[in-house]
Amino acid sequence: MAAKSDAPSLDWSWNHSAATSAALVAGGAYTVATVGSVAGLPASHALLVAGAGAVAQAGADLYQHRPAGHTVARCAAWLAAGGWTASALADHTALTWSSAGWWAAGTAAGMTLARGLVQAEETARTERHQRRLQKWANKQAGEWHDRLERLFRLEGHEVEGVRPWKGDVGYTVRVRMPSDTPELPADAVRKLAVDLRLPKGGGIQILDGEVYGQTLIRVTAVDVLAKDLDLPDTSDETTVTSIYDGIPLGLKPDAEEARIAVVDECALVVGQTGSGKTNTINVANAGALRTNNTVVMHIDVTGAGISLPWLHAWAVDGTAAVPLIDWTADTVEEAHILCDTVIAGIGARKTGHQDRLTEDDKLTVTHELPEVLVVVDEIAELPPVLLRKLDTIVNTGRAVRVRVVICGLRATQDVITAAMKKQSRVRVGMRVSDPEELSHLFPTGGARINPKSAPYRGCGFYSSPDEEDVVSEPTAFKAYRIKPKQIRALSTVYADRRPKLEAVFLDSEPGEYYESRWGRILPRLYKAKQLAPTTIPYTDMDTLYPPINQLTGIPMTGAADPEDDNAPAPRIVAATGQAPARPEPRVGSDLLSTMLNAARTTTGQAAPSGGNDATVIQADFGRVIQQAGTPENRPSPIPQLLAEAHQHVVAAGGRMWSSDLAAAHGLDPRVFGTELNRLLREVGVERPGAGTVRIGDESKSGYLAETLAEAIECYRDTK
How far is C-alpha 36 from the chain's CA centre? Predict the structure, then answer.
């Protein structure tokens, strides 16, 4: 579905009120009287037309069940207009002051009468609707009182009201619970749904009311979640919004829009494979990009899948003048640069915008001072060092409007850090097969969640703070569907409203890598593909690469490794339009030789006699376990096996499966894994994700270069 144009168009609809309709009829009568007098039109024709109009009016009123008095008044108006026209035709007096005066008076009376009749009918219609609604509500209240007593043996409860939802898709029952039974039992949702014979996909939701002892029972009578909901993209639905309005995700079972607030809060989005999580992320992207006061950045080291659809209009088609996504970190190295820049920007905003914090302790988001929203997909693929940096952003960025949307397959500790979960008051859980997953994501209210209430692809549950900053109970919703074709169309609409980061945010040492970011990223994403001319302003410059820490492989932007006084200078690559060469190996040959030679020292070797200068070494499977001698003569305590394993993993790109790593050493996989894991445990280093490493689309037991580097640092500190 393509986004529609905002160009003005003619409106041929007849949007007239009752008063203007009466004026048009009077104008027609005066025109007939004037022209007919010249043409010799018989007066009987006017009476014939007026009579036909009165008969038609009476038939329409009877069909619409209007009051008899209203029908008589409207028919009399038709006959009065016809009588005046016939008189003017007979006497040829339409253009006299007397005849015109009577016409004007009749026109004013007709307009007043028409307006009064319509208002009276609307009032009567509203009253009839209210009476029917009250009758329905009273009937429902009685049935619900008996139902609660029959199913749960309640006594002393009172059904205070039943309110229908718009669209006749359901209703809410407000119940005052007895003091000895303040809540319904845990199985109330299923019992009520079965008793009402409700369709799957919504059913029953039980919430706390505004006061203690009040319970709200929300009943979904129509399965809204089963419908396919395309993201609205008409001209009225793509107008400029603000991040303060929230980000729409889809519709709730009551057909109200599900929105999340990300101005003050971080968001956590989880969902199993095939649940529609990626689609929901792109819907959130669309909501954030529709605003004119939000800068969206992405971290997706599995191929930048959430960014490519939004970059296509700018990078390939050339229909968007600017990139919709301000920064895309498609590799771990680029993610480090992005996080370092954002962390430094948070500090720069806190000191550089003190004059804007006079009325509030938080910055006010504007087009000139936008919110920075960092969307992180597949967070389980990020190394621990990056997770710690994201924790810093989550913990420190709220006051200066830097927030994070974290996406993963599960909300468990092996995927999401404790800080991310605690600081993310916005929770979104897509379709799952295990209720415990939702209970873990929603610690309050999760016990009443039934995954069968959201069984369809694209369904899920969400909770978010409301206008009073109160976090709502987990509520089912159906996410809008957004397709790549629609994303490209929306990109051209939203491109012109994209804000830019202010100079204060980028006034830091890591910020110097911001301008040339697309020179690093585009060659990796599109390789030899021809890019659109719209990318030239972003790539026609020297591309700046930060130096790489030879041991950890982490880019040194000035923030990641401040204690390294010997860090090499940044590398500058001229803008040639070609992909830059791969950075030099992370482990230098001299450093590696030192580690290996130290660990290969012969067991039991004795130095010449020299008292305190003697060096005695004992080793076990490449691990130095005891040594003596002066510090300058002692070898490095780093185990040979650990050092060599780190070298192989780095050469393989930073991650390697256990079986491949054991084969590289020529060892049995079980013996190799047991020994290497023992070396990690001895210095308290744990493998993230329970040791699972994902390469491509497959996950197996393996090792990350960052994990082995952390262990090497721990052994080095034991010297």
Answer: 67
